[in-house]
Amino acid sequence: MRTRPLKVALLGCGVVGSEVARIMTTDAADLAARIGAPVELAGIAVRRAGRARPGVPEHLLTTDAQALVNRGDIDVVIEVVGGIEPSKQLILSAFKQGASVVSANKALLAKDGAELHEAAAAAGVDLYYEAAVAGAIPLIRPLRESLAGDKVNRVLGIVNGTTNFILDKMDTTGAGYSEALEEATALGYAEADPTADVEGFDAAAKAAILAGIAFHTKVTAADVYREGLTEVTAADIASAKAMGCVVKLLAICERAADGESVTARVHPAMLPLSHPLASVREAYNAVFVEAEAAGRLMFYGPGAGGAPTASAVLGDLVAVCRNKVNGTTGPRDSVYTQLPAKPMDQVITRYHVSLDVDDRAGVLAQVASVFAEHGVSIDTVRQQGRDGDASLVVVTHRATDAALSATVDKLRALDSVRDVASIMRVEGE
Predict the structure, then answer these.
(1) Taking the mean position of all CA atoms in its chain, how far away is CA 289?
(2) The ACT domain covers which part of the protein (predicted)?
């Protein structure tokens, strides 16, 4: 075994960072045996000194992250600060110093991943980020390495535990969105400002990372269509139940049938109860991968939290430290296909459309003719009426977003249609 320790700088000591520091300290001997060299936590950069951090060696704390990265003797930098800056500049500085980087920063990787990969390659070091997408679930490495010889066509997943918890509570208890969010906040699943989760920004960043790796092309968060779940109502949940479905916030990445483009989107969707993802409960994550040779694969587990995310960070730490010991690096970013991202209005999917209409003869025929006029075929229709009011639920066959939008605009112009109550996509047919 190599005797000189590999020195590690830890940037960030919050929920995840403190757990990483604790495990590195308590399991130092096991980590050394797995790597083939001792690992030494050389410093921990924090925003504010003086806070109590149980289990974290106080003498390692510093508020000067840049000085820590620039020391010159750091072999690996672990970045769990989050955000774009100063994280980006700290990572680029680490590369210039010859240090490999392990990151959990999905926002940064989804925005500037290509630039960071190029900088790592130029410096001859590693950039690993298993923890950026699904916490403890091994997903990045299987896509990047285990399936490297296969052709992945689709990645469908629940990649945000907060939103899955909220939708699960709405489904199982009948709670409204606000009530479910309040419970998620009380339990620590939702932040004080839950916008990144409930509006789909977190899931969109993860979808960009997954699509880029799965399809060997450059995809950024700006390429991902995004809808949150704030508009999902108890009526939507009830409609899904009536169809034998459950509502989930899904990240969906697909290679076009002609192989000439890719799509990445995040939005609520009705999912049949028979689909494996439908049974994913509480704050758990799961990702369904469809590959030509391997077939359908599912990855499931806790997608967030200090210990689960630290597990993924430390797995990457072991991998990059082994590479350091062996004088090599891991797989480089693969973007050889250079496939463009298709805009959402060209994406083909199924829809559940709920209408409030007049309860009189001929309304269904009017509505059906509007769908036909725009080339959107109807799969099923369910109508309920009483005392002059009626609800009409239409489930379509596959159609483009543009065609459905034009259909809805025309429906709103009909005198017999009082309101387009809800529109939701249907997946997993």
Answers:
(1) 14
(2) 352-425
* Helix or strand (DSSP H, E) at 251: strand 245-255
Give the tokens for residue 212: 């880029």
- Tell how far CA 192 is from the center of its chain: 20
Question: In Å, how far are 92, 110, 252, 395 from 378, measured between CA atoms?
Answer: 53, 37, 23, 6
Is residue 385 over pLDDT 80? no
- pLDDT at residue 252 is higher than 70: yes
Residues 39-65 have a mean pLDDT of 90
Q: What is the pTM of this model?
A: 0.94
* Active-site residue flag, 206: yes
Q: How far apart (Å, rounded) are the C-alpha atoms in residues 155 and 301? A: 16
Q: Across the strands, what pairs with 392?
A: 355, 383
* Matching residue, tokens 């606000």: 178
Strands (E), 13-151: 39-45, 61-62, 76-79, 100-103, 127-128
Q: What is the mean pLDDT of residues 68-91?
A: 97
DSSP 254-308: EE-TTSS-EEEEEEEEEEETTSGGGG--TTEEEEEEEETTTEEEEEEEE--SHHH
- The CA angle 123-127-129, to the nearest 5 degrees, is 170
Catalytic residue among 7, 88, 206, 218: 206
